[in-house]
Amino acid sequence: GATVDLPAAATGGSSRLEALLGRSAGGAAAFDQPLPVDQAFRHRIEVVDPFSVAVHFSIEPGYYLYRHTLGLTSNVAGVQAGTPALPPGTPFNDEEYGDTLVFRDEVTMTVPLTRATPAAVTAPFTLAFQGCKTDSICYPPQAVTVQIALPEATGAPPPAAGSATSEPVSEQDE
After folding, report:
1. Chain centroid offset of residue 132 CA
2. Which residue among 44, 56, 100, 121 is least packed, with the fewest CB closer than 10 Å?
3. How far apart (Å, rounded) are the C-alpha atoms in residues 142 and 128?
């Protein structure tokens, strides 16, 4: 029988093997490899106004994001991120989450902000998301730190949806 000498892993043999697999069958093997998470789910952040940001996700064909995993949280005391506004999503039955909602192709999440001061500030936020490749792997939940440059806030913030006043009201105040 024929013997095949395999290089030791320390010599970078795995990358050579991937290169060989990628060239076989017209690149079909490479096509089946899941993309790196930052290529499968590309995000772009847009400051809509001093009190809201939009996070645009471009989702590669054959991939999807879970609606319930999308979020943006502030990492500084002076800026608070509110509940994100998202489109309804597409119903999907998932092995891990059961009946859930997903996004394919693209989605925009709009997040209202509450600011302690009107001064312009660049603040760190954590962008959360999780997605999968259809009929393949699911990526672990992602928590990406992003810096968002917020402009100076002039004028009053827009009133919260469904309230006549912009004063925060909670049951603890009663």
Report:
1. 12
2. 44
3. 5
